[in-house]
Amino acid sequence: MKKVILAVLLFSIPFILFSQEFTITLRKDLLLTDDYGTEYNYKKGDKFIYKIDKDGFGVSRDEPLRIKIYFDDSEGNRCDSQINDVSLEDYDYKMTDDIKNYYWIPSYYYTVSKEENVRNSLFRYEPYWKTFTFVAEDDPEWYEFFGIRRYFFGDFYFVVFGGYYYNDVDFFAYLEEVSDTRIVYNVQKMYSHFFDYKEELYYNQPDFLPLFEKETPFKIILTIDGDYMKMYIDEVSEGNLFQTLVRTTPEACNQLEEKILYQLNGPSESEEDSYMDYIYEPMAEEESDWSGDELPVSDVKITEDIQPTQEPVAVVEQTSNLLLIIILASAGVLLLVIVLVVVVARKKKKESNDLNI
Questions:
Q1: What is the per-residue burial (b if ≥16 Cβ within 10 Å, else e) of 136-175?
Q2: Which residue of 24, 176, 185, 254 is most buried, as measured by CB atoms within 10 A?
Q3: Residue 106's closest CA among 291, 209, 231?
Q4: Rounded to an integer, what distance in angstroms lies between the CA atom of residue 252 and that of residue 255?
Q5: Does the pLDDT of residue 156 top 60, yes or no?
Q6: E-assigned strands of 34-98?
Q7: What is the per-residue pLDDT for 342?
Q8: 325 pLDDT exceeds 60?
Q9: Buried b vs exposed e over 205-240: b needs ≥16 C-beta within 10 Å?
Q10: What's the chain's average pLDDT?
């Protein structure tokens, strides 16, 4: 009899693990719609069940920080809301504002942007672009799908998104430790744009495939030093370092992405120089264990209920410099036109003299 009970328990373990549930609570009154289009009025404080193997969340490509999460009410109705409208019950740690109010991006993008051969430099860090193919009538170039990968950290989740081909990577993970220099997430589940990882799916971020295949739960440890963050898997060691990130704002990140795409399209050196003049601002000098390039850090922050500002902060702050650049560029173009006119006139005069001879 004991053997039978033991066998039943062992057989049940996978089902217990894979049916893990969490309780989430509404932070305000909401009108939500279920999978069949039926609307329900819920009150602040109402509780829902989040089933990690059934529900999920993901990033909207058009509005990346309006992250949608699915869950079930007490009667089994499956609804969804914005992730900032809910909180995870029984887990009290909250992400600090100096982390969640910014994007964090891999530091190598700044290195790539300053290399003479941007394409080869990018291939060193993201080699999968070398063999990337996309079959379509207009035969697009691989870099038309490129985008800087942005990390965004929340209270019980963090997401990685960017580009126009690979899906966002979404971590359902509660906080175990939060301080100014160290943050620890306990990862319960990973999603590829709402869905479980499947090997046959083509759109999983290549760098994250080892994590998708890793048994959960596991830990993500973030160590912070000024504007730099190192991301480790399970323990802080050189062998477990997954990524080095730097803090940036949404607008500055967009400008850096445009700059790299501009270089991938092959502009002239003079065009690159003039383009760079109004994109970057030097980072204030801070003591750090890691060396890094200039960071365009501004005062723009991400709030829970407001989308990142679309106002080009870095450009606005340097309007006078940009105006000067435009004036100088216009003068340069005018001078070039005058020189060309003079050259053409002299050439025609010489040809006329040769004919007369």
A1: eeeeeebbeebbbbbbbbbbbbbbbbbbeebbbbbbbbbb
A2: 185
A3: 231
A4: 5
A5: yes
A6: 39-42, 47-51, 57-58, 68-72, 78-82, 86-88
A7: 64
A8: no
A9: bebbeebbeeebeebbbbbbebbbbbbbbeeeeeee
A10: 77
Q: Which two tokens mark 268?
A: 């002239």
Cα gap 125→133, rounded to integer Å: 18
User: Which tens digits make up the pLDDT trace of 92-149?
Assistant: 899 999 999 999 999 999 999 999 999 999 999 999 888 887 766 667 888 888 999 9
* Residue 194 region by backbone torsions, left for phi larger than 0, else alpha for psi between -120 and 50, else beta: left
- For tokens 């359902």, name the residue: 172
Q: Which amino acid is at 4?
A: V
- Tens-place pLDDT, residues 222-266: 999 999 999 999 999 999 999 999 999 999 999 999 999 999 886
Structure tokens at 76: 């089994």
Q: If we measure between CA atoms, which residue out of 126, 224, 211 comes closest to residue 171?
A: 211
Predicted pLDDT of residue 349: 57
Q: Is the pLDDT of residue 319 over 80?
A: no
The position carrying tokens 């440890």 is: 221
